[in-house]
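Worked problem 6 (solution included).
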Amino acid sequence: MTDLLNEPIAKNITPVARLNIPGGGQITVQDGLAFVGHMDAPNGTTIIDIKNPSKPKVLKQIFLEDELSHTHKVRVAGKIMITNVEQAQRHLLRKGEQLPNVIRTLTASLNRQPDDSEIADALGLPPSKLADVRQFLKKGYQDGGFRVWDISDPKNPELLSYVRTYGFGVHRFDMDENYAYISTEMNGYIGNILVIYDLADPKRPIEISRWHMPGQHLDAGEKPSWKGYKNRLHHALRVGNELWAAVWNAGFQVIDISDICNPTTIAGHNYHPPFPEPTHTVLPCEQLIDGRRIAVVVDEEHDHTPGQLHAFLWIFDVTDLNNIHALSTFNVSETESPWSQKEGRFGAHQFREKIDGTLVYVTWFSGGLRVVDIADPFSPREVAHYIPAAPKGFSSPQSNDVDVDKNGFIYVLDRNQGLEILKMDNIT
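Solution. The predicted structure is:
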């Protein structure tokens, strides 16, 4: 009898190759090359030759100087590559900012100095992480931003510039050969905002505009109507003269950039509450479907609360930006993956950021890759899936990001370890 926990599970997909590389946050495929941004230092960015997808070959590994940052996102346009720089363990350290207040409160209630286990419990952190928190509070973090590279020779990328932003730095972003659409913290704001940079001279990117939601610009006297960092830009994707922005617990917004120096909000839709998981990515299809303009939205699974919904995929009608409305959703049952009850996340995360047909390729953490046909936007239908085996040393697969090349080969990146190269059985 086959041990399902040691074997991949596939429907209409055939594995082509696997490359055992450190886990990553994003994969971008262009011109026979795959670019991977890794989750954890010292691994930064890996460039892989995929001209023969059955025999992928690592061309270059870029390593980080220290463990303070990670560069887990990467985008490419022409001969320019951009990698983010973001503080490692940022969510943990953000909790750690409350350390002085927690110590004061505990000291007052206990009538003595609290020990590390009591402090860690109050912060909701493992005691082993208190040293990292104290180091962060002592030294701060000034490295957040993004790097711009010349990849004319992919075996020897040349660093052209390093733009430092603020705070925890840059998360996911979009770019083309002219501009970078950066999601980052900036001084005077709460949570990530959009900053657009002109790349005419990639050695000296120039900030040309910013966009934020009302309530984020604290230095301008704005006051958020939400708590903490719940509402912020995850990232925005350019479509013509629009940017489609996922704004976490505020749903998504559409930004007009016909005047790129003056980004202007023209539409938005928020379904939080009641849905618990934050909005990760939003993107309209390149073509109309049944005469409608259709947008696909995916939420990101976080710490799951039993009884609540897992993150899933949405299909929206965005034909009239004054009347955005949901048409349907697509979900995956826990019963469809033998790893759904194992350590690690189960639920949606990210889809391929290009919808040039009716197929949506979406990663589902321990649910693997799901290929969903939205030809009928009222009834999305899964046509293929591939759930990798758990990487060695890990309890479950954590399929994190996906891209597809011009020949139909699918590249699925695991958050912890490994790159799967696949082919749909009905694609020639």
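Discussion: The two ends are 32 Å apart (CA to CA).
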